[in-house]
Amino acid sequence: MSIVRFREVAITARSNDKCPVCGRRTTRSKKFWQTISPFNRLPDGTPKTRDDINRELKAEADAWEPDHRHAACIESDGGAA
């Protein structure tokens, strides 16, 4: 059995802000990715191109809103967002 590896298209989003509880600066990052494959398709059924994927990843990264609280602040805050 052979292994087929599809090429990954990825972007990394970073966000710098202050913790709303203690006020310390925080940095959060997240990787958004998809693969270029015949199974990754647009709603009309055609396979996605690198440009299609990049557009979707950019929109997903722009909509991302990270939680800038520290682990200790989450515990002291009772886990409320």
Walk me through the topology.
Layout: E1 7-18, E2 25-36, H1 50-63, H2 71-76
Antiparallel strand pairs: 1-2
Report what the structure shows.
This protein is an alpha+beta fold and 81 residues long. It has one domain (7-76). The chain is 25% helix and 30% strand. The protein contains 2 helices and 2 strands; from the N terminus they run ββαα. The protein has a two-stranded antiparallel sheet. It is elongated. The mean pLDDT is 91.
Look at the helices and sheets and give the structural class: alpha+beta
Overall strand count: 2
Number of structurally distinct domains: 1
CA gyration radius, whole angstroms: 18 Å
Low-confidence stretches: none
List keywords for this structure.
81 residues, alpha+beta, two-stranded antiparallel ribbon, 2 strands, elongated
Tell me briefly what this model is:
The protein is α+β, with helices and mostly antiparallel strands and 81 residues long. It contains two helices and two strands, in the order E-E-H-H.
